[in-house]
Design brief:
Layout: E1 4-9, H1 20-28, E2 31-35, H2 36-39, E3 49-53, H3 58-70, E4 74-79, H4 88-96, E5 106-110, H5 115-123, E6 124-125, E7 131-135, H6 143-155, E8 159-163, H7 173-185, E9 190-195, E10 203-208, E11 221-225, E12 231-233, E13 236-238
Helix pairs in contact: 3-4, 6-7
Length: 250
């Protein structure tokens, strides 16, 4: 039996947002590997083995999947959102570097709908022009690097989407992020707090940076900050597709 690995994005939460390509891979899989809450989204069935693990063992998880594929198993590594955005695809390729090319299994990366894109769609089109995504966690990089990237993204007038804004282990850092954004963008810039989009716990809040508070975000929240031209139309928030959409320039 020839083994393979698919690295699949399960989307932001709603099963309707799982792509048919991902569903087909899961239907063929003998093993599903991933972080505990993501594996919990996979329905058990005969012939399928589930391998949940902690969130801080990405490389161990990737190596285990490679071993399974070498043994002829059909493995799906699951991530939320898209597997290439702060997720397992890069961890798999990092583990793959330790193997000779002759030992590389068949690998497929199956895209998914990110929390960032689901949140933007709920709000309107705040990412309608140039934007960037920044992970605010300092688990894998120093917080000084987070601050550096934030400041320069703001000065470049990107709309910004933030993952992992605030956790119990680092509740103070998001306050610093908001302070930095006010310094660079001013108090009137729109900021969107989108929590658990596409799940029953979904909540969306749009305020200005002057009104934003750290407690508005947690680890289930994606935060989107507009650029200088981002504005409201009715209940929606959007960013024009060119600077000509605004009467001012940054």
């Amino acid at each position: 039996m020839t083994g393979w690995i698919a690295v699949a994005g399960l989307g932001p939460g709603d099963e309707a947002l799982v792509t048919p390509e991902v569903a087909a891979a899961l239907a063929q899989a003998t093993d599903v590997v991933g972080y505990i809450p993501y594996v919990a989204r996979i329905a058990p069935r005969p012939g399928l083995v589930l391998h949940p693990s902690d969130n801080r063992v990405e490389l161990d998880r990737a190596r285990a999947a490679l071993d399974m594929a070498a043994a002829g198993r059909r493995v799906v590594i699951v991530s939320s959102g898209d597997p290439g955005v702060f997720a397992m695809a890069s961890a798999l390729f990092e583990a793959l570097e330790d193997l000779p090319q002759a030992a590389h299994p068949d690998i497929r990366i199956l895209p998914g709908i990110t929390a960032m894109l689901a949140a933007a769609a709920r709000a309107g089109a705040p990412l309608g022009h140039d934007f960037c995504a920044i992970n605010l966690s300092d688990n894998l990089k120093p917080f000084e690097m987070v601050e550096h990237r934030l400041r320069h993204a703001a000065r470049g007038d990107f709309a910004m989407a933030f993952y992992n804004p605030r956790s119990k282990a680092r509740p103070h850092q998001f306050a610093r992020v908001l302070e930095l954004l006010r310094e660079e963008c001013g108090p009137d810039r729109l900021i969107i707090f989108a929590r658990a989009v596409s799940t029953p716990d979904e909540a969306l809040r749009v305020v200005t940076l002057a009104e934003a508070a750290p407690e508005m975000a947690d680890m289930r929240t994606v935060v989107i900050v507009g650029n200088f031209a981002t504005r409201r139309v009715g209940r929606w928030v959007y960013t024009p597709r060119s600077a000509a959409g605004s009467a001012t320039t940054p």
